[in-house]
Design brief:
single chain; mainly beta; about 50% strand
């Protein structure tokens, strides 16, 4: 029996971006900076209900790729979001900037 993971689509606003201090290393990428994009995800039609998702990026930060404060982004995630509210960018599918605050 083949198990297929369902994907859920999300839309969120970038609240802020932070570079984490320290030495960060992965066997695949070597030494890279660790950045965290904080996304405020809408939950249903009620805008007052939202969820904060922290997306970790082990790479150089680029506003054109990941968004900046005020940008609206969309993506899909196989399965459910973790209870911790933290994911790695590589876990997201089809991440794109819908609207931007760049001038």
């Amino acid at each position: 029996m083949l198990f297929r993971s369902t994907r859920t689509a999300y839309i969120g606003a970038v609240e802020r971006v932070e570079e984490r201090e320290g030495d960060h290393f992965s066997p695949e990428r070597g030494h890279k900076p660790l950045n965290c994009v904080y996304l405020r995800l809408a939950k249903g039609a009620d805008a007052s209900e939202s969820e904060l998702l922290r997306v970790f990026i082990l790479d150089l930060y680029s506003p054109a790729i990941y968004g900046q404060k005020g940008d609206l982004v969309s993506f899909e995630k196989p399965g459910r979001l973790p209870v911790s509210g933290e994911v790695w960018f590589e876990e997201l599918v089809g991440y794109s900037i819908l609207t931007t605050q760049r001038k």
